[in-house]
Design brief:
Layout lengths: L2 H13 L8 E2 L2 E2 L4 H15 L10 E4 L3 E7 L6 H6 L8 H9 L9 H11 L6 E5 L6 E7 L7 E2 L1
Antiparallel strand pairs: 1-2, 3-4, 3-7, 4-6, 5-6
Length: 155
């Protein structure tokens, strides 16, 4: 499988438990909600910000109460800059451009707003982000808590 196939397979597994209320926009039913946008942005962020020179892999876990996205390498912006948005230093700009050309991602630095607002739209706890450069291997973790009983499923 190529990277896009990996993305589609994982994304479709992650969105299965998300609510899909009936919504119309300009006379057309909308299949995706802001929560779907949040999951898409978190997964794409995990992929395009992966340190491909570091040992390890992208890890995505879906439990009954959260989605966890982990990749190798520390963030290249501060935690404050991450949550403020508008500024992004991308490790893999070619991958980012690929997702933009496919219509899956927008301009750099705008994804965190979608993640936060998507989760707020469900009334679920806000996302957390861990970036600990002292841990070995160095990695970044994005956790989207959903507030249900914990049961792990690997994606």
């Amino acid at each position: 499988a190529n990277l896009y196939q990996f993305y589609m397979r994982v994304y479709n597994r992650l969105i299965q438990p998300l609510p899909r209320p009936f919504m119309m926009k300009d006379g057309i039913r909308q299949e995706e909600t802001p929560a779907h946008d949040a999951v898409r942005e978190a997964l794409i962020n995990c992929i395009v910000h992966q340190d491909i020179n570091a040992q390890g892999h992208i890890i995505v876990e879906r439990t009954d109460d959260s989605l966890v996205f982990m990749n190798q390498g520390i963030m290249l912006v501060s935690r404050q800059q991450y949550f403020e948005g508008g500024r992004s230093i991308c490790r893999n700009p070619i991958l980012q451009k690929m997702f933009m050309m496919l219509g899956r991602a927008e301009k750099a630095g705008s994804g965190v707003d979608k993640i936060v607002s998507g989760w707020k739209s469900l009334g679920w706890p806000l996302t957390t982000q861990e970036n600990n450069p002292r841990k070995q291997p160095k990695k970044k973790v994005q956790d989207l808590p959903a507030g249900r009983s914990r049961k792990k499923r690997k994606s």
